Structure formats: C-alpha cells, structure tokens
C-alpha cells in the first residue's frame, strides 16, 4: 500500500490532446508541485483528422487504427506534463470517438455519445473511490464548444460527482474549463491583420461558441513556468496538431502568457481567497482543508 499526496486533482477529458490544449499547463503545474494528477480520457479519438501524411491510412475510413496510435501520443504528452496516472474511461477502447455533432459516427454502437450515463459514470466513480480527489476539472454543459463527446464527458463527470456525493467521497470543488471574454477580445484585436488569423471571419466575441464573462471566472492558474511543458505535450499529438497550427503561431506572439495561463469557472464547492477585481483564485485548492482522514491510501499496483 502507498499513500497519495495531500492534494489530488482529477481531470476528465474527451479525447487525447484535449488535456494538453485545454489544461496542459495546469496539469504540469500541479504535478511539478507535488500534487497527484489523475487524467481520465473518455475515448481514443478515433475520428480525428491526421496531419502526418505518412500516417494518413490510419484514418477511421481506412485502417481505423488512429485510436491505437493516439494512445502512444497521449502517453508522450503525459510524460511531457509530468503526469504518471492516466486512465481511459472503462479501459482503452470501451468508448469510441463520436465525431462532430450531427455526423453518422454519432450513431456508432460504441460512440461515447451513445454511452449509458450511469454505466459510464460508474467507471469514473471507481477511480474517485481509489484516488479521492479534492478537485475535479471537466467541461461545461456545452462541452466548451459543442462537441458531443465533450458534452458527454461533462454529463458523465457530473453524474459521477452525484454518485460520489451519495457515498461521501465527492470532490470538494469541481471546475469547468473556460476562457474569459476579455482574453478572447484581446485575441480578436491582436490578430485582425495577421495572415494566419485564427479568428478570421469573426467580428465579435459574441460570434464565438465559447467565452465567459470575466466576473464568472473563478480561477486563473498562472503556470507560465510550465509553458514549455505544455507546448511539448501539444507537439506529442502530432497527428492532430500540425507544426503550422495557429496555436503555435499565437504562442510565438504571446509566448508564456498564452501557453501558461488557464482559466476555470467553479461549478461545485466554495470559492477560496482570490485576487484582482473579480477575486480570481490562483490555486484550485484555495480554501480547502487538506488535513485529516480523507488522504487516500491506494494499492501501488493500481497506479498507471
């Protein structure tokens, strides 16, 4: 038996690469500062596009081997972030990437979009029983931008919290990934004349499928010292994020600020002490008492 660290963070993401793009710096920050970081990925990302020409035949419509390949990409990304505890929900391959909303792939019998909610939440509850995270991160009810697997990840995560609450083992705080409208507005203005403008055709933040009013943001995690780890994790997902991606273009312009700062809203729990005009937390564990019997003894062999 071994005892996990006092601070335990659980993240629930839909596909390989979501963890790096959306929460990579936060994961690297907490891993580097001694917290136990558990990543749960719900699918293998079988329906993703492929940006490496020599691997094009792995696509779902041909060999349908992309999901297996992305297991290796995710392992490399986790290594870059310093995360050693990663699980696929229900085991690798139990749930399949559903593809974008409205596509026939949504109807695949193993599509995550079709998953039985309580069954899938039960798989996550097993992990909660083992790890006993005080903090969980997932998406909002629109999956941040509307992808069916992101929406389902939200539903599964929040149902698991309900089940864990009934057992008295639920995370004290649940955060949803977010992007302040002020940050998006600054991006729109900064890239207006850029040739690789990722906001081309968008005149206002109101036209974007995401964006949270600044007063509704609960936490701003400044992990600028981990921006290189996040970029390395993103580059590990080479089939999905080409070297010419606008993500790297923005990083080149804004550097550590873009790669290293991530934002969240608080969906469950009490907000801890914060800073600035809106009292944004700078620590997801702010306000929590981490002493006492909730430290999680687990079998060492159970970590993977």
Automatic annotation (TrEMBL):
InterPro entries, alphabetized: GlcNAc_PI_deacetylase-related, LmbE-like_dom_sf, Mycothiol_biosynthesis_MshB
Catalytically driven reaction(s): 1D-myo-inositol 2-acetamido-2-deoxy-alpha-D-glucopyranoside + H2O = 1D-myo-inositol 2-amino-2-deoxy-alpha-D-glucopyranoside + acetate
MF term (GO), any: N-acetylglucosaminylinositol deacetylase activity
Cofactor: Zn(2+)
Pfam families: PIG-L
Top-level taxon in the UniProt lineage: Bacteria
Keyword match Hydrolase: yes
Cofactor note: Binds 1 zinc ion per subunit.
TM ranges: none
The entry's keywords: Hydrolase, Metal-binding, Zinc
EC number: 3.5.1.103
Residues annotated to bind Zn(2+): 15, 18, 150
Gene3D superfamilies, per database record: LmbE-like
A GO biological-process term: mycothiol biosynthetic process
Assigned protein family: Belongs to the MshB deacetylase family.
Entries under PANTHER family matching the protein: 1D-MYO-INOSITOL 2-ACETAMIDO-2-DEOXY-ALPHA-D-GLUCOPYRANOSIDE DEACETYLASE, N-ACETYLGLUCOSAMINYL-PHOSPHATIDYLINOSITOL DE-N-ACETYLASE-RELATED
NCBIfam families the record matches: mycothiol_MshB
Protein name per the record: 1D-myo-inositol 2-acetamido-2-deoxy-alpha-D-glucopyranoside deacetylase
Gene behind this protein: mshB
């Amino acid at each position: 038996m071994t005892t996990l660290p006092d601070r335990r963070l659980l993240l629930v993401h839909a596909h390989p690469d979501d963890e790096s793009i959306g929460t990579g710096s936060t994961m690297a920050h907490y891993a580097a500062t001694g917290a136990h970081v558990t990543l749960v990925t719900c699918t293998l990302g079988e329906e993703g596009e492929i940006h490496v020409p020599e691997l094009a035949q792995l696509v779902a419509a041909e060999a349908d081997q992309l999901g297996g390949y992305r297991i290796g990409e995710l392992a490399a990304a986790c290594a870059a972030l310093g995360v050693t505890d990663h699980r696929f929900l229900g085991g690798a391959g139990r749930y399949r990437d559903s593809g974008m909303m409205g596509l026939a792939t949504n109807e695949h019998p193993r599509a995550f979009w079709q998953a039985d909610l309580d069954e899938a939440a039960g798989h996550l509850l097993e992990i909660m029983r083992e790890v006993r995270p005080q903090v969980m991160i997932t998406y909002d009810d629109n999956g941040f931008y509307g992808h069916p697997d992101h929406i389902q990840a939200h539903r599964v995560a929040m149902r698991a919290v309900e089940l864990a609450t009934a057992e008295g083992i639920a995370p004290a705080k649940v955060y949803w990934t977010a992007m302040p409208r002020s940050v998006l507005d600054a991006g729109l203005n900064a890239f207006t004349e850029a040739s690789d403008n990722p906001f081309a055709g968008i005149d206002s933040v109101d036209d974007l499928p995401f964006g949270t009013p600044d007063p509704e943001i609960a936490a701003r995690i400044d992990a600028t010292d981990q921006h290189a780890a996040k970029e390395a994790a993103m580059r590990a997902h080479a089939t999905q994020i080409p070297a010419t991606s606008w993500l790297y273009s923005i990083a080149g312009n804004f550097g550590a600020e873009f790669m290293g700062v991530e934002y969240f809203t608080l969906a469950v729990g009490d907000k801890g002490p914060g800073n600035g005009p809106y009292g944004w937390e700078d620590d997801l564990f702010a306000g929590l008492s981490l002493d006492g019997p909730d430290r999680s003894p687990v079998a060492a062999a159970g970590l993977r």
